[in-house]
Amino acid sequence: MNSLRLGRREILQKCLALGSLTILSAAFPSELIAAWEEREKLARKPTPWNELGPFYKKSAPHTASLRAPGDPGIPLSVSGQVLDVRGDIVPEAKLEIWQTDHLGHYDLDGYRYRATLISDAGGKYSFDSVMPGHYPDRVCQHIHYLVTAPGHKTITTQLYFATDPVFEGDPGRNFSREPLLASAELVRPVVLRGDPKNVFADVNFELVMERL
Amino acid sequence: MIQVRSAVLLVIAGASSCLAQVRSEMSIATPAPVEAFVVARDGKAAAGWGKDGKVRVWNLPAGQVIRSFEPNGEGASQVCALSNLPCGLLLSQDGRWLFFGDSKGGVHIWDSTTGDVRFETSLAHYISTAALSRDGATLAAAPTGEPAQVFDLRSKRRLFQLTSDFGGPMAVKFSPDGSLIASADTDTAIRVFDTHTGKLRWRFDEMTLEPFTIDFTPDNKFVLVGGPNKSLILLDASSGKAVLSYPKQKDVVRYLEVSPDGSAVAVAYVDEKGSNILAPVMIFELSSGNVRAQWTPETPIIGGGWISDGHLLLATATPEALHIWSLR
Description:
The structure holds two protein chains of two kinds.
Chain A: H1 8-18, H2 29-42, E1 75-84, E2 94-98, E3 114-118, E4 124-130, E5 143-148, E6 155-161, H3 171-174, E7 187-188, E8 191-195, E9 198-204, E10 207-209
Helix pairs in contact in A: 1-2
Chain B: E1 2-3, E2 8-13, E3 18-29, E4 34-39, E5 45-50, E6 55-59, E7 64-69, E8 89-91, E9 97-101, E10 106-111, E11 117-122, E12 127-132, E13 138-143, E14 149-152, E15 157-161, E16 169-174, E17 180-185, E18 190-194, E19 200-204, E20 213-216, E21 222-226, E22 232-236, E23 242-245, E24 252-258, E25 264-270, E26 281-285, E27 291-295, E28 303-306, E29 312-318, E30 321-327
Antiparallel strand pairs in B: 1-3, 2-3, 3-30, 4-5, 5-6, 6-7, 8-9, 9-10, 10-11, 12-13, 13-14, 14-15, 16-17, 17-18, 18-19, 20-21, 21-22, 22-23, 24-25, 25-26, 26-27, 28-29, 29-30
C-alpha cells in the first residue's frame, strides 16, 4: 500500500477544503498558513536535562558579577535568552547558577561563583565569571543551571565548553567522554578575544523551557 | 582463598585526639577488583560489585562465594554504603535480598540464597539512591533527577512516587518500623512521608546545601542528616524540628549510618576537592557528638556497615583481594 505523506501546509489546506477547520478571519487562508509556518520556524527544542548537582546551594546572591577583581583564571562572559518551545520570550525567569573556581573547587562555605539572575523583559540574561576548572569527580568543565518560571517546567541543566581539552576540538564526536552528556547540544562554542596575554571568553547559552 | 588476620592496629586519630581500634578481619581473594561492598546487619553475608561486572555474595566469616550475579553489563549507580564511591548495592538486613541499581536505570533484586530474580524494573535515569524496608517488603528507588518511586515487592506493584520541588533525592531511608520514608532531596529539603499512604508528614527547609545522606535512629524517634554543610543535624522524626546540630568537620558528609543500638553514628566523609583525596570514616557518640573513633585508610573505603554485635565493618580493595576491617 502506498503511504501518503503530507506536509503541514497540505494538511491545513485539506482541512480547510473539507470544512473541518474554520478560520474566523478576513485574512486569506494562504496568509494564515504562511503565518503559521513562520511561527513554526521559531519553535525550539527544550533545553536538554542534565543533572542538578553536586553542591546546589539555595539563596545565592542576586549578582551578575561572579568574578571579583584580581580573580585568577580566564575571564568568561556568558549571555543568552530564555525562551519557550514556541519561541516566545520568557521574562523574569529565575536562573540559579553555580560553578567551580578556575582550579575546580566549589565554595561550600560561602557563595563564590554562585548567583541568582532574573531574565529581563526580552528574556535576556548575562553574567561575568571565570572559566571553571575541572572538578576532580567530573570529566568536563561545566556551569550548573537551575531555571524556574511560572507556568513552565523547571530546567536543570549544565553548560559545557567546546574549548574543553577533553573534547580535543571536536565536541560533536567526543561529547560522550563526559558520561553525563547524551548529546553535544549542551556544549557551546566559545569565542576567544583579546591578545595571548589577556584572553577573554564569550559564550552564548540559550535556554528553552517547556510550558506546563 | 581466605586469610584471616588477627593483627590489631592502633591508630592515633590526630585531629580528634581519640584512639581508634582498627582490626583487619579478613582478606578474600577476588578474580577482579571489588569496587563496592555491603554487609548484612547480622554480619553473616556480604556482597560486592566487581570490575568484571559481577555481583558476588560471600558468607562470613568463611568468605566463600555463595552466589554470583551478572546484571547486564551496565555500571553501578550511586547508591552508597559507607563509602564515597558509586556502588549501586543494597543488602537487606537479613542478607536475603540483594539490590543492584545500574547506571542505565535498571533495578534488580535477587534472592541471594536461591539466586532467583525477585523484582526487576527500569527507571528513567540511573538510580541515584534506593532503600529497602527492614522486612524486605518495600523498595524506594529514585532515578536521578526525579523523586523516589515506592514499590511493594510482594505484589510487584508501584505504590506511589514521593514529591519534591525540583530534582530528586540524594538519599532515602525507611524508618526501622517501616512506617516512614525519609528523603534527603537535592532541592535542599528533608521530607518525611507516610509509607502506607505516600502523604508528606513534614519537611525541613533549613539546610542551604543539598543534603547527601539520611538515617533513622533505631527507636524511630529521630532522623539524622548530613551533607556538604559538613555537619550532622538531628531532627525529631514526628515533627521535623531540629533537635541538635553537631560540630562542623573539615570534610563533606557523604554517607552516614546509625549503629544498631542507637548510641553512635558512622560517617564516611569526602574531601570537598574531590573523592580522589582520601577522607576519614568517623564514629560519633549520638547523644553528645563526641568523636569515638576515626580512621583514614591508605586506599579508599569501598563500603561497609554496622553489624548487630556493635562492630563497624569496612572494606578496602586491592586488585586481587577484598580486605575487611572492623572499627570500634
